[in-house]
Structures are given as C-alpha cells and as structure tokens.
Amino acid sequence: TSDLTSVAFSSDGQLVACGSRDGSVSVWNFARRLNVLRSAQGHTSAILAITFSSNSQLVLAGSHDCTIRLWRASTGERIENVLVGHQRTITCLASSPDGIHAASGSADGSIIIWNLTTFKAHMSRITDISISPNGVHVASSSADRTVRLWDALTGDLL
C-alpha cells in the first residue's frame, strides 16, 4: 500500500523480496508465480534494507525503526526474535556466504555482525540440547512438547 524502498534476489534467483515505506515485506517465488509472503508486518517504520541469507532460507529486513526482523522465505513465518543494537536507521544489510552471519550498517555509523543461528527455535522454554558425536547435528527439546534436529553448521532446521 506504499512505496517500495528495497529489493533483493535470493541466491538461487527463485525468490525476490521487497521492503516498503509502510514497514511491510513481500516475497515472491517467480518460478511458481506465487506470492509466498504478502505484506507481512512487523516493523513500525519504513524498511530501507532487505536481503536473503546466503542459503535463501531467511529474509532479513532493516528499518528506520532501528531493528532487523526475520522471516522464513519458504513459508512467510515471522521469526519472533528482533535484532536490536543500532541507535539510528538501518541503511544496509549483507549475508555471509556460509549463511551463519549477517552484517548491518546504520546511519549511526556502526556495523554489527549478527549470528543468524541464534534465533528462537521453539515456542516455549528449551529443556535440553545435545550435539551429535560428530558435531554435525544439534537436537533440542522443549516444553512445547517438540524435539527438533538442526544442522550444526548452518543452523537449518532439519
């Protein structure tokens, strides 16, 4: 419903994300001609920077409200964690090739390196966590009555 202010392609070229002056995010899958995420809200102000994680699983949007919010690119599910640390508008975002880190730049002159594998994993408190003997997987259990298996290198939910 407002001007588009930022746009980014996923690394595989299948998805495109758009940020808007009204604080909403949209993600389109061009191969399927499908709108994956339409006008997702979360930011309270204009989005000035948008990018995908290098593995194309996350959409990151930086805003004039000094926060970065994340969504799962394939489902449009908003990740509840909000990345906070800048004192002024977030003006740019970039993802590392390994998909583990993202960097943000701000009008306050700061750069922050974020670890993308530390976002909320369960809907309730984590009750236990274990790393596989070979270090490749992480298993987590939660009071939400789920056990989840993760790729230890990328943080991807398996």
Note down, in words, how this protein is organized.
Keywords: Repeat, WD repeat. WD repeats lie at residues 1-29, 40-81, 83-124, 119-158. InterPro entries: WD40/YVTN_repeat-like_dom_sf, WD40_PAC1, WD40_repeat_CS, WD40_repeat_dom_sf, WD40_rpt. By secondary structure, the chain is mainly beta. The chain folds into two domains: 4-115, Methylamine Dehydrogenase, Chain H, CATH 2.130.10; 119-157, no CATH class. The chain is built from no helices and 14 strands. Strands 1-2-3-4 form a four-stranded antiparallel β-sheet, with no helix packed on it. A hairpin with a 3-residue loop joins strand 6 and strand 7. 30% of the residues are buried. The model has no long low-confidence stretch (mean pLDDT 84).
Number of E strands: 14
Radius of gyration, whole Å = 16 Å
Q: Considering DSSP H and I runs of 4 or more, what fraction of the residues is helical?
A: under 10%
SS summary, helix count: 0
Low-pLDDT runs: none
CATH fold annotation of the largest domain: Methylamine Dehydrogenase, Chain H
Principal-axis shape equals globular
Question: How many domains, as an integer?
Answer: 2
The proportion of strand residues reads: over 45%
CATH architectural designation of the largest domain: 7 Propeller
Quaternary state of the chains: single chain
End-to-end Cα distance: 36 Å
- Strand arrangement in the largest pleated sheet: 1-2-3-4
Keywords: Repeat, WD repeat
Pfam families: WD40
Protein name: WD40 repeat-like protein
WD repeats: 1-29, 40-81, 83-124, 119-158
